[in-house]
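Hi team, as promised in this morning's meeting, here are the two structures we talked about. I've kept the exact order from the run log so nobody has to guess. The first one is mostly here for context; it's the second one we should focus on when we meet again. Sequence first, then the predicted structure tokens.
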Amino acid sequence: MLEITLSVLIVVGALFTFIGSLGLARLGDFYTRLHGPTKATTLGVGALLIASVLYFSTRDEGLSLHEILVTLFLFITAPVSAHLLAKAALHLRVPSIAPPPAEAEDPLADTRARAGD
């Protein structure tokens, strides 16, 4: 049963990592390319690390904490780094495929104009 669980986790991890890498290579602009490594690849590496935790925890004596710490670090740092990269790209006005949102009008502009009269 352990071998089946490990096999499923390794195959799922490999698929997610491959899909994330493919998305990084094939998507059109910087903003959409961020999704590949931050979402799919993080899940793929997480599944591989969980498989490693299960394998080494059953083979050695006790729980393998090294992989758990790596997994936690990965799940914390990947979204933060993606957010900072996207924010820097917005600040530098990196072009995007998607059109920018229309300027939202202030719904209270008419009320404020009348109050000033």
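And here is the second protein, the one for discussion:
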Amino acid sequence: MSKQAAPLGLVDLSADAPCCPPLARRRVPAETAAALAPAFKALGDPVRLQLMSMIASADGGEICVCDLTPAFDLTGPTISHHLRTLREAGLVDAERRGTWVYYRARPAALRQLAALLTVEPTRG
């Protein structure tokens, strides 16, 4: 049985508005850091980062697991584990259609992470 993305308390990865100011501008509160860390941790694995890239850049906004698995020299269960980690971190949504599962990136979640990492040009 797979888990759904855990509620993130003060930070809603599905919200379109940024969760907080960029970390280069102001310290990230402990609660926000704790809520966002699982998403960053999920992307910290090279296979998951590649999977996320493949999902986010897929034509039509979604991709079948049947197209993801052959791209790696890994077993199906290992790919499924990585995809579950991305799902539990709130970075992707999955929909079963018959025997296949299709994955879609959650753009709002990616925008939240990108906004936190935004670095404004220095004035000089």
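Starting points for discussion:
The radius of gyration is 16 Å.
The CA atoms of residues 39 and 53 lie 14 Å apart.
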